[in-house]
Amino acid sequence: MKFVFFWVLLNLPVALAFDPDYANDITPPYLVFLKSDYLPCVGVLIHPLWVITAAHCNLPKLQVILGVTNPSNSNENDVQVVGYEKIFHHPHYLINSIEHDLMLIKLRRNAQLNNHVRLVNLPKDPVLEQTMCTVSTWAYNIYDVSKEPNSLQNVNISIISQTQCRKAYEAYNISENMLCVGIVPGRRTPCKEVTAAPAVCNGILQGILTFADGCVLRADVGIYTKIFNYMSWVENTIQKN
User: Which of 56, 90, 100, 220 is flagged as catalytic?
Assistant: First the structure.
């Protein structure tokens, strides 16, 4: 456990940078920027026609943007802007709950897969505690949060036990449909970052952020929807639509 903590600390300078000129991080090719007239969200490309994100995302006048590193840069190369056809919330999701917080977006046309836009793998088995995962999202320039986020960052942190997570979030019902990723207790000053960050572990999408008290890019503990438990819904939705 000490090794894991030390290993995370070595990776925290990336998470703590929040430098709008930070250019050394790489955008995972499965990452999708969901731009809207409200707040943006992070999505994940799981099929040439399908993106998964959190159901709590409110996305009026949605634009699905693939292959983007800096959403505030309108001149970036290798970007694909794709329209969407339909949005599917998980049928059991309630707006006042963090359970079943998943949403599928069907695109209007297939994404063009290349070095900058690729699919993520989906889980065939549940992920184990202490598995190291990469959590990715965009942060805002702290001096001007009115503009689009402009700093893509990745942080490598591990899955913690349900027991540890319940201690970190005593006021929440941490169910078997959830994963917790981060450092315990790990709560720090909140920051401005794009919600619905994915947790990808060994190349496999295992979680979508539903709630965090603090900042996931600083390795604060976040509660994630456990993708493995929803694979039947994901597969059935894609097959029927």
Answer: 56
Question: Helix, strand or coil for residue 179?
Answer: strand
Kindly report, residue by residue over 115-132, the tens digit of the pLDDT: 999 999 999 999 999 999
Q: Where are the alpha helices (DSSP H) in the chain?
A: 2-16, 162-168, 231-240
Cα dihedral 165, 168, 173, 179 in deg (nearest 10): -30
6, 79, 64: which is closest to 32 by C-alpha?
64
Alpha carbon of 29 to those of 56, 115, 147, 204: distances in Å? 23, 7, 23, 13
Q: What is the pLDDT of residues 49-95, one digit of tens each?
A: 999 999 999 999 999 999 999 998 888 888 999 999 999 999 999 99
Amino acid at site 20? P
Q: Which of 37, 47, 90, 101 is catalytic?
A: 101
pLDDT per position as a tens digit, 148-198 = 888 899 999 999 999 999 988 988 999 999 999 998 665 666 678 999 999
**E strand map for 49-150:** 50-53, 63-66, 80-82, 84-89, 103-107, 132-139
* Residue 125 annotated to the active site: no
Least confident interval from 104-108, 169-173, 208-212: 169-173
State the CB neighbour count (10 A cutoff) for residue 83: 10
| Integer angstrom CA distances of residue 76 from 10, 25, 34, 81, 214 | 30, 15, 16, 12, 30
With 0-12 / 13-18 / 19 or more C-beta atoms within 10 angstroms meaning exposed / middle / buried, residue 116 is middle
